[in-house]
Amino acid sequence: MSAETDTKLIAVEIMGKQYHVPDGMTVIGTMWYTGHNIIRGVGCLGGVCGACSTVYRTKDDFALKVGLGCQMKVEDGMSFFMTPFYPAAKPNYKVQEIEKPKEELFRYFPEALNCRNCNACNKVCPQDIDIKGAVKDAVKGDFAASADKVLSCVMCGLCVSRCIAEMAPNMIALYARRTYSVFYATKHERLDQQMEKITGGEWNAEWENILALDTAGLKEYCKARR
Amino acid sequence: MDSLLEKYLGVIEATRDKRGAQAIPLLRDADVSKLLAAHHPDYRKEAYRPIAFGPNAGEQTVHELAALLEADSPLVAKPANLSRVDYEVDVLVLGGGGAGATAALKAREAGASVLVATKLRLGDSNTVMAEGGIQVAIKEDDSPVQHFVDAMHGGHYENDPRLLKVMVEDGPFAINWLDSLGVLFDRDDDGNLKVKKGGGTSRARLLACKDYTGLDMMRVLKDSVLNEDSIRIIEFAPAIELLTDAEGTVTGAVLQNLDVDQRIVVRAKSVVMATGGIGRLHIQNFPTSNHFGATGDALPLCYRVGARLAFPGTFQYHPTGAIYPEQMAGLLVTEAIRSGGAHLVNKNGERFVNEMEARDVVCAAIIRECAEGRGVTTPFGRQGVWLDIPVIDVVNGTGVVKRRYPGMLRKYERHGINISTQPVLIYPTLHYQNGGVAIGTDGQTAIAGLYVAGEASGGLHGTNRLMGNSLLDIIVFGSRAGLAAARRAKEVAFGELGTKHLEAFHKQMAKAGVKPTRTSPLMLPDYVRRPEAEAAG
After folding, report:
1. Which of B108, B318, B382, B404 is catalytic?
2. Is residue A178 part of a domain?
C-alpha cells in the first residue's frame, strides 16, 4: 500500500544471505517479500498455532533467540531462519484410561522431576508462560495451578528445544491441564440435567410442531420467542 | 498510529460517558434488510456471477469461487498412477482441524481404520484461532429450542431446520465429550460452566476458555488423535482429486505430498471432507482472519464428483478485524469484546449501531460509516472505525479487560498497543464461508461414500452464522460424519479407483463453453513477491 514506498529499508539476513526490506514487517512477511515460498512454517498467521518458530540473532548480540514468525517484527541487522519441524518425542496415554493422574504423571513423564531450574524454558516462551512453574506445579500435584498457567500455550515446542533436562515441558503441562479438567475440575449439574432432558424427550412435541411449519410459520414462531 | 491515536483519543474519551448512556435499539427487520442491501459485501452485484455448469449451474457466487469450481483437475495435466495404492483404509479424513480430528476420533472409536491427511500440520486450522466460545443451551432459562430460534433468526430463516435441530440437541453431549477429553471450560463461582452472551442471541449460552476457546479445544483434540496409535496421519499432503468407481461412488483420493513432488493414492470405503473454509481467496479483496490453508478445497473437489453446494454465494465478514498496525490486518478482535461492552465509534466519537446486532448487520453498519466519510484512515490507506475497548474497564473497573481477554491483550501488546487504555481500529474481515457442500444430518452428501463436516459444509447456518455456532458445528457434525463413515465402512467393500467423474465434468464444461485456464484446488495462497516477473509484465 501507499506508505510502503515511504518506509525506510532495513537489512536482514535470512539463512545467511542479506536482503533489504521495508521496516515494520513480520518474519513471515519478510520471507514472502524476499521471494521465499514457505510451506512449512506458516499456519494460522494469528499467533496461536505454533507453526512458525523462528531462530534469530539481533545486531551486536551473540545470543540465539526464538520467537513466532507471524508475530515478530524484523529489525535492522537481524539474522534468522525458520524451523520447519522439531522431532520431539511424546508419550502416548489415553485420558479415559488414567486412574491416578498425579501418580501416573511420573509414569509417562519420569523426567518431570529433573528440572534444574535453569529457566531456559521461561525465557524462550513466546507466550510468556511460566512453563517452568507449570511443570513444578504438576510435579507437586497442584494440577489446578498448572492448568491455569498454560491456557495460552500454542505447543510450539520451543521450550522442548531448550530444556537441559531433556523434558517436554509443554507436554507435561498439557497432561496436567487435561487430567485436571477430567478429574478435578468441578462438574456441572446443569449440563447433566440438560442431557437428561434431551434424552427424555422434553422438547420432542415442540420439535414436531416446529419441523411441521413452513418458512413463514417458522419465522413467526421464532420471532415470537425472541 | 501514535499521532492518529493522539488525534482521536480526546474525542473518544470525551464522548465516552455520553455514549455509555446512549441506548441504541436493535434495528427493525425492514431496516436490517435495507442496511444489508446497501452495504453488505454479499449484496455487491459486480462481485458476483452465475456458475457456468455443474450441480449449481446458473446460481450466483463470487468470481473467486466460480473460477475454482470451473477450473480443471490437476490430474488432467499429470495423471496419477492409480494402480499403485499407497494406503488402504476404512475412513479417509481430509483436513486436520476440529471437524477432521473429531471425525477421526469418532470413526476410530467405532472400530474403523483411519487415515487423516492434512494440508499443513494436524491442528493448523481456523478452529485453533476461535476465541469467543462455543454456543450450547445449558442454563435454566435456555433450551435447545431457544438456541434453534436464535440461529434461525441469525441465519435469516435460510438454515436447514433438520441440521440445526441436530446441532442444538447434540450440543450438550458434544460439550460432555470435550469435557471427558480434558477441554477445560471456564467455571462460574458456583462451579458450574460459565456462560457469556454472544451477538444475535436471546440468552447467554457461550462457553469459553477465556479468549482461547478454540486453542484449548484443538490442543486437546490433536493430542487425543496423536495418542491413538492406530490413527495414521499424513501432514503436508492435501487432496487434489477424489476418486470414484464406475457408479460415481467415492472410493478414495489422490493427495499431493508438498515436501516432495509426489502423489499419494488412498483407497477408502468412506471419505470425510473436513477441509474448512475459503478466507485465503480474499474474496472481494477483503483481508481475512483465516489460517494459511483456508482455500476452500472441498468446494471444487466435491463439485467435480457431482455434489451440490448450498448457499455458495454467502460469506461472513467478521465485523471487527484489526486494520492497524498493518501486520495485524485481518486478524480478529474477538466478538466477546463487544458483548463485554466495548463501543463501536466513528471518527466523530459517535456510536452508530447496537453492538449486539448479528454479525452481518454490524459489518454492514461499519462499512456504511466508512463509505459515508465517517471512518478513520490508517497510514497504509485502510479505512475503519474505532473499537473503544477501554470503556469496559471504565465501566467495570480496572483490570477487567486484562483478565477477560488475555489473548487479545497479548496480540496488541506485541505491537505496543495496550487495549486496556487504547482503542483500536477495526474493519470487517473475511471470516467464514456460510455455505458449502450440501449435507444431511450425518454429514452425508448425495454422492455415496462422501461425507462433509464443518465449515466445508453448508445449510446449517443459512446465510449468516452466529458466534459460537461454528465450534459446535465442527464437533457435532465431525462426530456424526465420522460415525456414519465408519458405519458405511462396515457395510461395503473397497471400490475401484478411477476418475470417471472427470469425464462427466469435462462434458458439462465443454457444453457450457468453458475452457479451463487453471486447476483447482488452489491449495495455498501465494504471497511471494516476484519483482522480476512483475517488471517483465
Report:
1. B318
2. yes
Section A181-200 average pLDDT = 93
Q: Are residues A180 and A203 in the same domain?
A: no
CA distance B233 to B236: 10
Compare CB distances from B161 to A3, A71, A210 and report the shortest one's residue.
A210
pLDDT of residue A189: 85
For residue B440, count other CB atoms closer than 10 A to its CB.
18
Q: Is A114 inside a domain boundary?
A: yes
Provide the residue ranges of all domains of chain B, joining segments of one domain with +: 2-39+316-430, 74-92+109-265+295-305+434-441+466-500
In a domain? residue A72: yes
CA-nearest residue to A209 within chain B is B145
pLDDT in tens, B398-424: 999 999 998 899 889 988 899 999 999
Please give the angle made by the CA atoms of B256, B124 and B306, to the nearest 5 degrees: 50
B236: nearest CB among A40, A179, A219: A40
Are residue A52 and residue A13 in the same domain, yes or no? Answer: yes
The band of B537, judged by pLDDT with boundaries at 50, 70 and 90, is low
- For residue A88, is it within any domain? no
CATH of B74-92+109-265+295-305+434-441+466-500, one of 3.50.50.60, 3.40.640.10, 2.40.128.50, 3.55.30.10: 3.50.50.60
Would you give the DSSP letter of residue A100?
A: -
Place of cell 477483503: B286
| Cβ atoms of B281 and B64 closer than 8 Å | yes
Report DSSP state, residue A181. I
Return the pLDDT at A6. 59
CATH of domain B2-39+316-430: 3.90.700.10
Domain containing residue A61: 2-82
pLDDT bin (cut points 50, 70, 90) of residue A2 is very low
What pLDDT score was predicted for residue A1?
A: 42
* CATH code for the domain of A180: 1.10.1060.10
pTM for the full model?
0.95
Average pLDDT of chain B, as a whole number? 95
Active site annotation includes B63: no
Q: How far apart are the first and last CA of chain A?
A: 45
Contact residues, B window 425-484, toward A, CB-based 8 Å cutoff = none
- Domain count for chain A, please give it: 3
Provide the percentage of residues in chain B whose pLDDT is more than 70: 99
Write the CA distances from B4 to B10, B11, B345, integer angstroms.
11, 12, 15
* Subunit contact B192:A190, Cβ cutoff 8 A: yes
Distances in Å between the Cα of A177 and the Cα atoms of A112, B172, B428 are: 15, 21, 35
Distance CA B31, CA B23 (A): 17
- ipTM for this model: 0.95
By the 8 A CB rule, do B418 and B64 touch?
Answer: no
What is the Cα–Cα distance from A134 to A128, expressed in whole angstroms?
A: 12
Closest Cα in chain A to B229: A92
Cα(B389)–Cα(B335) distance, integer angstroms:
11
Q: Residue A28 in 3-state DSSP?
A: helix
pLDDT tens per residue, range A79-101: 999 988 888 888 999 998 999 99
